[in-house]
C-alpha cells in the first residue's frame, strides 16, 4: 500500500512535480516491494494475529470516537436551533 501511495503522490502535478513518475523510481519501488513481501513471508503467525487484533481494536475505537463526535454535533445543532426558535414548543412559530 505504501508503494501505491508513493506512485500516486509522484503522479500529482503540484509543488514542483510535473505529474510523471520518472523511470528511475520503478526499480526502487520494485526492490522495496520485494523486501516488504520477503519480510511478510518470514513473519510468524502470531504477528498476523496481533496485527488483526490491533486493526480490530483501532476500528472499534474509531467508531466509538466517531459516534461521540456525531452525538456532540447533534446536541450542538439541537441547542442552536432551539436558540433560534425552531424547536417545537418554543413559542417562536405561528
TrEMBL record:
Q: Which residues cross the membrane?
A: 21-41, 47-65
Sorted keywords for this record are: Membrane, Transmembrane, Transmembrane helix
Q: Does the keyword Membrane apply?
A: yes
Protein name, UniProt field: Amino acid permease
Q: Which species is this UniProt entry from?
A: Qipengyuania oceanensis
Lineage, uppermost ranks: Bacteria, Pseudomonadati, Pseudomonadota, Alphaproteobacteria, Sphingomonadales
